[in-house]
């Protein structure tokens, strides 16, 4: 018996339509005589009714035949991405018997869901899941450096992604074990698998970017390898409801011969989700058509206003429009507890004393990313030259936080713009080994600034600041959350004095982003750095999102005309140096008893209450759960972190761990005294 595939046909609206389910498996007679095969399929799960489906199949010696079973589920339970609903799974089991003896059997799970896509008028791909427009928000996965599979570790990664409100993980080339897709099916995380860039998979005559030139174009053996590889991957991936699409190219599109092999293999496997030519707009094969994804960077640091600077879109590269298949500001600085695990003291000193030095844990010596020069220029000129390693790391976390938050907020806010921001894959989600950049959490699974910037910027319902236009936007990633909302906007100076305050009543719109206020007049009158707090509440007063920015009346000036493939240069930087001269704030930290909090990953959860007892803001408070030896507890989840408190403000957080090793919480920040609080 070959692999089982399950083809699900369902009309919109899926919530009220029956599902036609076709179960397929190839039967092969391995004998040198004809056989009569009794084939049986059983579908179970979610109160699925009906007996086994049976048929008798005659096979000549050596013959192969695809056996089909069809069943209609009148009221199917629909599989949804996590943020939109539940993940009910059905089971399909097929058994082949000869002379009443079982010859072979196989089983697979599947879900009832529907994925489609189209290329809009701007040549941008837009997905729909179960008939609803689906904005892709996720990250690019890095397999282990030795390709070791660890299901527990990957489960933690999925839990981290969902905690960051991400909905999709992109796999480039390293398509991993079947268990990866089973985990994503269970948790409701969509997957974008596809072939890899920069190697033999893209050795086309028209690819002039390989390390070898001229490219080692495919021979007959290569086409055969690619064909069997696609057959295998298609059959393995096909039943999984978490699979959103398949990219048959990454940086470059496949030639016509390879495209035909890929498409045939996918279709023969019963493939139903979109087949995308490549992750870039360089070209496409006629058989598939335009891929509708952009790969225009950035890959290194850019300021927060980059994402909102969308016009004219022909020149704005990675800004928040269209489908960005891999892009980001290159951030992901590990905190000290992780850095000490892979850097020497000399290496640590180099981070802040030699900002332009080439670094082993960045990239290779021929890479554009061999050092932190671009990133450090922004840090030194915006926040001021660091005075110590601790000062450098604090400023780095502030840089990372504002970078990822702005990226996800920009795409979320402009999701329903005239040219919609249809997809956003942060480059990258995680690292294959200990690294100094390109991650949303580090190799040791420690979440830092880039993680919590992502988490805040991707909230289900959120309120955000548009740096470019100095506007306030409401973002709603839900399918059904509507009704009255209140947005509270307040500006204070570095001494805690109120500059402006207003409330805006609005009605939220499901699955959209929209402007609710223009505060440019207030921001343009600022004389120095100020803090902006945005609070989104529902009609009952429940806080849905709380968000604090440090801003000035100016923004970083971008030289769009001088852009490279990996970043856009800043010619004039904002001045955040007054943040180094803040008055000290006094913050109390208290913890509650162990419990389980809904929505917080982990098994042992505590309440952590922060209270600013001062008349000045307490800025960028970071909290680290450590064990008795002072080592970071990883993995760990915080309902929020790297937070800024208004004068006299109290904020309750939740911290969750996966084991009992947490002993205390290290507390530090921009203008508070570092301390350790015992649990």
Automatic annotation (TrEMBL):
One of its GO terms (molecular function) is hydrolase activity, hydrolyzing O-glycosyl compounds. Keywords: Carbohydrate metabolism, Glycosidase, Hydrolase, Polysaccharide degradation. The keyword Hydrolase applies. Residues 565-672 form the Exo-beta-D-glucosaminidase Ig-fold domain. Residues 17-113 form the Glycoside hydrolase family 2 immunoglobulin-like beta-sandwich domain. Pfam families: Glyco_hydro_2, Ig_GlcNase, Mannosidase_ig. It comes from the Eukaryota. One of its GO terms (biological process) is polysaccharide catabolic process. InterPro entries: Beta-gal/glucu_dom_sf, EBDG/EBM, GH, Ig-like_fold, Ig-like_GH2, Ig_GlcNase, Mannosidase_ig. Residues 471-553 form the Mannosidase Ig/CBM-like domain. The keyword Hydrolase applies. This is Exo-1,4-beta-D-glucosaminidase. It comes from Trichoderma harzianum (Hypocrea lixii).
């Amino acid at each position: 018996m070959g692999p089982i595939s399950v083809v699900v046909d369902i009309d919109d609206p899926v919530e009220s339509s029956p599902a036609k389910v076709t179960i397929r498996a190839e039967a092969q007679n391995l004998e040198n005589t004809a056989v009569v095969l009794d084939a049986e399929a059983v579908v179970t799960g979610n109160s699925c009714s009906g007996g086994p489906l049976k048929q008798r199949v005659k096979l000549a010696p050596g013959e192969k035949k695809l056996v089909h079973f069809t069943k209609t589920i009148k009221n199917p339970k629909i599989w949804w991405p996590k943020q939109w609903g539940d993940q009910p799974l059905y089971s399909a089991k097929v058994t082949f018997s000869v002379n009443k003896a079982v010859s072979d059997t196989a089983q697979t799970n599947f879900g009832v869901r529907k994925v489609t896509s189209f290329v809009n008028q701007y040549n941008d791909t837009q997905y729909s899941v179960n008939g609803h427009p689906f904005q892709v928000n996720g990250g690019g996965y890095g397999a282990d450096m030795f390709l070791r599979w660890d299901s527990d570790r990957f489960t933690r990664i999925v839990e981290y992604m969902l905690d960051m409100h991400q909905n999709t993980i992109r796999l480039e080339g390293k398509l991993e074990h079947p268990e990866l897709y089973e985990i994503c099916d269970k948790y409701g995380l969509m997957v974008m698998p596809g072939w890899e860039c920069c190697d033999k998979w893209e050795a086309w005559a028209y690819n002039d970017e390989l390390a070898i030139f001229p490219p080692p174009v495919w021979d007959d053996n290569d086409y055969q390898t690619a064909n069997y590889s696609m057959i295998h991957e298609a059959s393995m991936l096909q039943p999984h409801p978490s699979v959103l699409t398949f990219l048959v190219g990454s940086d470059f599109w496949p030639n016509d011969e390879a495209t035909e092999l890929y498409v045939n293999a996918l279709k023969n496997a019963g493939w139903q989700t979109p087949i995308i030519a490549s992750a870039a707009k360089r070209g496409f094969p006629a058989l598939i058509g335009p891929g509708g994804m952009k790969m225009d960077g950035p890959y290194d640091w850019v300021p927060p206003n980059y994402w909102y600077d969308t016009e004219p879109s022909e020149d704005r590269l990675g800004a928040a429009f269209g489908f960005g298949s891999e892009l980001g500001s290159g951030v992901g600085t590990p905190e000290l507890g992780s850095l000490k695990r892979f850097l020497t003291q000399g290496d640590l000193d180099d981070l802040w004393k030699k900002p332009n030095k080439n670094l082993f844990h960045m990239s290779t010596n021929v890479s554009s990313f061999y050092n932190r020069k671009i990133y450090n220029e922004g840090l030194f000129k915006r926040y001021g030259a660091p005075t110590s390693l601790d000062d450098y790391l604090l400023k780095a976390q502030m840089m990372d936080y504002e970078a990822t938050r702005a990226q996800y907020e920009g795409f979320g806010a402009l999701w329903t713009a005239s040219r919609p921001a249809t997809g956003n894959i942060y480059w990258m989600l995680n690292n294959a080994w200990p690294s100094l950049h390109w991650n949303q959490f580090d190799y040791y699974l420690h979440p830092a600034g880039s993680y919590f910037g992502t988490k805040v910027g991707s909230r289900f319902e959120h309120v955000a600041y548009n740096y470019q236009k100095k506007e306030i936007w409401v973002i709603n990633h839900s399918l059904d959350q509507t009704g009255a909302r209140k947005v509270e906007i307040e500006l204070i100076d570095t001494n805690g004095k109120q500059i402006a305050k207003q409330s805006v009543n609005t009605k939220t719109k499901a699955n959209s982003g929209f402007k609710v206020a223009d505060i440019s007049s207030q921001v343009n009158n600022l004389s120095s750095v100020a803090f902006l707090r945005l609070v989104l509440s529902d009609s009952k007063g429940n806080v849905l999102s709380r968000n604090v920015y440090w801003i000035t009346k100016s923004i970083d000036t971008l030289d769009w005309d001088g852009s490279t493939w990996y970043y856009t240069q800043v010619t004039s930087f904002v001045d955040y140096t007054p943040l180094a001269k803040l008055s000290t704030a006094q913050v109390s930290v208290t913890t509650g008893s162990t419990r389980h909090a809904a929505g917080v990953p982990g098994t042992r959860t505590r309440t952590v209450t922060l209270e600013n007892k001062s008349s000045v803001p307490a800025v960028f408070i970071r909290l680290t759960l450590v064990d008795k030896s002072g080592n970071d507890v990883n993995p760990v989840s915080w309902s929020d972190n790297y937070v800024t408190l208004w004068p006299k403000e109290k904020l309750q957080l939740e911290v969750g761990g996966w084991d009992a090793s947490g002993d205390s919480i290290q507390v530090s920040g921009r203008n508070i005294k570092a301390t350790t609080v015992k649990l």
